[in-house]
């Protein structure tokens, strides 16, 4: 397939499409949900962050030592924990420790598995692959982590009487919180399951489309897209599972009593 020049976007084009954000803000104001400032701030932040990272990536991809690349991954991990915290209103006890450990194991494990055991990166810290793939895995896991933490806190609050009744009848903390944990885990997996089910029909994945547009053979692009979706789904599941397994225990004392702050 003959490669065609990329259609460049003028600033006037960006200003035109940014108007759709104002449409969303207007609808939010019409409905009175009180998220207008948050939406405007998020859109402005997106533009600044993408502008900065676009130029930084030129420098990052030229790095030939692992230390700065690991530092970048660490910053991405810390930022992801903060982003999850910003999305969750009612935080579980020991929230930052629980979410930090879960993202480190879930996303770090998924990235290591894909980059080193599947692709076999050489060198292992090749930033052209490691950073974009880690970004996709962390970004998608953030959504699952937010849903898991938010739903668990909500379920533990709404089911408090039910849980205390179960404990008074001799149930363990694990049994009493079982329905809350299962509901939260189910919610955390919904975006990943929906994405896999609709991929290729409802929307075209950016990674595969970009590879095909750049001249990569379709079969190679498809294999990469299937692989990354499988890794993302696995990382989301592991991260959310670890959040819930660690999280629900923090609502109880060692004697299987529901903590008052929970």
Please supply descriptive tags for the structure shown above:
262 residues, mainly alpha
3D structure, described in words:
The protein is mainly α and 262 residues long. It has 10 helices and no strands. Helix 3 packs parallel to helix 5 and helix 5 packs parallel to helix 10. The model has no long low-confidence stretch (mean pLDDT 89).
Query: What sequence of helices (H) and strands (E) makes up the elements?
Result: HHHHHHHHHH
Q: Summarize the main sheet.
A: none
On the 0 to 100 scale, the average pLDDT is 89
The end-to-end distance, rounded to whole angstroms, is 59 Å
Proportion in helices:
over 70%
Shape: globular
Helix segment count? 10
Structural class: mainly alpha
Rg, Cα atoms, Å: 21 Å
Low-confidence stretches: none
Quick one: how many beta strands?
A: 0
Strand content: under 5%
């Amino acid at each position: 397939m003959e490669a065609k020049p990329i259609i460049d976007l003028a600033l006037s084009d960006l200003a035109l499409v940014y108007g759709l954000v104002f449409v969303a803000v207007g609808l939010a104001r019409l409905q009175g949900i009180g998220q207008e400032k948050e939406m405007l701030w998020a859109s402005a932040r997106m533009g600044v962050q993408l502008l900065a990272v676009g130029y930084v990536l030129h420098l990052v991809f030229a790095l030939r030592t692992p230390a700065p690349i690991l530092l970048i991954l660490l910053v991405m991990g810390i930022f992801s924990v903060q982003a999850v915290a910003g999305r969750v209103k009612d935080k579980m006890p020991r929230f930052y420790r629980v979410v930090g450990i879960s993202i480190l194991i879930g996303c770090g494990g998924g990235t290591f598995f894909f980059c080193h055991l599947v692709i076999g990166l050489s060198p292992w810290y090749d930033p052209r692959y490691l950073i974009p793939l880690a970004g996709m895995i962390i970004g998608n896991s953030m959504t699952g982590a937010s849903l898991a933490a938010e739903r668990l806190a909500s379920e533990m609050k709404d089911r408090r009487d039910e849980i205390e009744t179960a404990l008074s009848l001799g149930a363990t903390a694990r049994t009493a919180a079982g329905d809350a944990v299962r509901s939260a885990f189910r919610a955390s997996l919904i975006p990943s399951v929906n994405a896999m089910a609709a991929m290729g029909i409802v929307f075209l994945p950016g990674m595969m489309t970009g590879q095909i547009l750049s001249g990569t053979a379709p079969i190679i692009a498809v294999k990469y897209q299937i692989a990354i979706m499988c890794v993302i789904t696995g990382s989301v599941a592991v991260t959310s599972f670890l959040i819930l397994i660690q999280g629900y225990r923090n609502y109880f004392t060692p004697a299987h009593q529901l903590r008052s702050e929970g």
